[in-house]
Amino acid sequence: MLRSNKEKQQNYELVSIEDLVPADHMLRKIDKYIDFTFIDEKVRHLYSQDNGRPAIDPLVLFKMIFLGYFYGIRSERQLEREVQTNLAYRWFLGLGLTDRVPDHTTISWNRRTRFKGTSVFQDIFDEIVLQAISHRMVGGRMLVSDSTHVKANANKHKYTKEQVQQNTRDYLDELNSAVESDRKAQGKKPLKPREEVNEDKEVKVSTTDPDSGYMFREGKPEGFFYLDHRTVDAKHNLITDVFVTAGNVHDSVPYLSRLDRQRNRFGFAVEAVALDSGYMTTPICKGLEDRNIFGVIAHRRFQPTLGLIPKWKFTYDAERNVYVCPQQQELPYRTTDREGYRHYASNPKQCASCPMLEKCTRSRNKRKIVTRHIWEDSKEKVRLNRLSKSGKKLYRKRKETIERSFADAKQLHGFRYCRLRGLHNVMEQALMTAAVQNMKKIALQLEKRASEG
User: Fold this and answer.
1) How far is it, in rounded angstroms, from Cα 24 to Cα 51?
2) Quick one: how far is CA 112 from the chain centroid?
3) Where are the domains of the chain?
4) CA contacts within 13 A on the Cβ side of 162
5) What is d(CA 319, CA 25) in angstroms, rounded to the nearest whole number?
6) Which end of the chain is more exposed for a tag (fewer CB within 10 A), N or C?
């Protein structure tokens, strides 16, 4: 006999929302182990204390934002509907079964006006990291960094072409000083220091989201993207830094400044870092050496000119400051250019009779030039680090740390695409996504400790 449940749906029941949320629900663990009381202090100065209508509790507002990032709910309108019907969400926000859910426009207004131009989202992310540190879940000794592309909310076919000047390199002063010292040591006249490096470059600028950058890389999708530069601690894979740039900014550009921020903000005594091959630049290798950090960077395959002898077959003699070619001819030092490269040149008279000339150089004057950066020693140390036993062990952690962190952000938290437009809004999305990832890890780890203890 078939029975209908319509009559039961009309019955009144005396229930408690506390009893309706499963005891092992993730939001229960988050609420138990994450201290959200700091939020009121972080945003209090943004609210009027004695004027206007009573505002929605900031804790409820931010918890609602967290829910959107916890479960990858892209729309604030959809988030409002989900909270209305989901008992666990209501319980997490401290709402009863009949309490009114904050309107989605409230979230939008606060994000676009009250919190715009403030550091509140960065402060919240930092506070979660500090809580992880207090629970001894972040060591700060071994860090892994990388970047991933995030699809911008922009049509790749709608753009204009503009001439822009590339950013001045932040290590230029140090490089100029090093070049001057090197030329002086070699008996060369000093060069006039160049205060800035401005190179005109034609780029595609999106008419939909001008802050995004047009990305065109081998093996990567083409279009307008942002880059999420992220650092994780190797101890429990907690995210310790997030920074967003346009998709056409090189991975290595913001690295050293973000590394220094973590050391200053959280007091990290960084001993070792693991990086992808995109970070294998001379300034980064020199920066790591100056900071006394053991750097492990993936090998960047050298692509010599087809048909010519590769540079690695020329041996460098540090004591005599010369290069020796495969035919045992010496290439003495000639000069150091503005970019910090030393030039070593062969004797064209000897090269003219060399049987390897056609495979060595195609210059008309039969002179072979080999360059070596003044910070090349730092780069070679990093190469040796990668080949060491500890270096190989550290680099293997990339797959289970930073790569896993990016995968979770995209697959579970909706960070494959940008919800909004503009660098500030994408930065907010990146920070909040990383914050909820950290919250989950903290809660699960503390729950595990509690069950084992």
Assistant:
1) 42
2) 25
3) 14-118, 138-301+379-424, 311-374
4) 12
5) 66
6) N
